[in-house]
Amino acid sequence: MEAPYWRKCSSCKKPIGFKQAYQRCNISTCNQPRTSLVFCTVSCWSAHVPVLRHKDAWALEEISPSEPAEDGPQRSTTTPPGSAPARPAQTDEVLVVVSKLKNYIRERSEMNTSADVNEILSDKIRALCDAAIAHARSEGRKTVMARDF
Fold this sequence. Notes:
By secondary structure, this protein is of the alpha+beta class. 31% of the residues lie in helices and 9% in strands.
């Protein structure tokens, strides 16, 4: 079942419907795919400005999509026998402790680490985990073990 709204306001959490005007911040870090902040009103937008310490920012008015995106991830309605239905994965979540990763690279090589490394490394970890889950499931287990990797 799909939600009757496009997204929720990043500030007050009120739903923003389809084909409805909303506000977006002009600052690029607020518009990254991972953050993608949207606001139902200019007052909700202005509430986030002091929190994120923007110095020169303004709200951009946009119109939400007319219908849900159909090119999103397709979920299977069937599950293998004896297994629980899969929960939707949070594919944009960083799976590594960024500070520890940066410290490791700095100690080993005296190099800095770019911010986009976190997302790429998380994608590789997800792929490894998905393969391990499939291996454990094929052996009839509900526990992923070291040998599945």
